[in-house]
Write a structure and sequence with these properties.
Pfam families: NUDIX. Helices cover 22% and strands 33% of the residues. By secondary structure, the chain is an alpha+beta fold.
């Protein structure tokens, strides 16, 4: 059993006050309720966060790295229960070992029309994880925070539509889009971000766009 680190306590204390970028603000009366689990733990290489690589066979967000999560079902008590359930279904993470700290403000994903509540948690008693739902998940990674904040792993990605956003190259994954924006915000608000060069820009690979656009 490990204690919640100070930086995560500070993040949790201000989570509801974190500003939501205009592009992620939910529109009134639209969107399906969903939740993701931002599960931080103490791994063999220091503090880390749990990410999944979505299946390339999926219908939405195919092949994208993401936080475990999904829709809030009618039988769920709310976004926290949904996030824990989805994480267990997708990665095998035992919810009994997870200490939920807080939720962040709701964020809107235009492409999938989801209103997503990020749930911030500490992995009090880590359990073994794997791609527990092969139809939805190709792989599971505990990504060290040190690798995420390494300036050499950070870039800006430009989409064919002309928009650009933060991205990370870690563990053989290109983390971009919604997940990268949330990680970028959380690392900065937690005081973990290291100076990096936001002018280092790459084009979003066409094969990534094609997979992510699949319906």
């Amino acid at each position: 059993m490990t204690q919640v680190p100070d930086w995560l306590e500070r993040l949790a204390a201000q989570a509801q006050r974190i500003g939501v970028p205009p592009v992620l603000r939910p529109p009134a009366g639209r969107g399906r309720a969903a939740a993701v689990l931002m599960l931080f733990g103490e791994g063999p290489n220091g503090p880390d966060v749990l990410l999944i690589q979505r299946s390339t066979r999926g219908r939405r967000h195919a092949g994208q790295p993401a936080f475990p999560g999904g829709g809030v079902d009618p039988e769920d008590a709310g976004p926290i229960e949904a996030a824990l359930r989805e994480a267990e279904e997708e990665t095998g993470a035992d919810p009994e070992g997870v200490h939920v700290l807080c939720t962040m403000p709701e964020l809107y994903l235009t492409y999938s029309d989801n209103r997503v509540t990020p749930v911030i948690a500490w992995w009090r008693e880590p359990s073994a994880v794997h791609a527990a739902s092969p139809d939805e998940v190709d792989s599971v990674e505990r990504v060290p925070i040190a690798e995420l904040v390494d300036p050499g792993n950070r870039i800006m990605l430009r989409h064919s539509r002309g928009t650009a956003g933060p991205a990370f190259r870690v563990r053989g994954m290109l983390v971009w889009g919604f997940t990268a924006m949330v990680l970028d915000t959380v690392l900065r608000e937690a005081g973990l971000e290291l100076p990096w060069d936001p002018t280092r820009t790459e084009e979003l690979p066409p094969e990534v766009v094609n997979l992510a656009s699949r319906r």
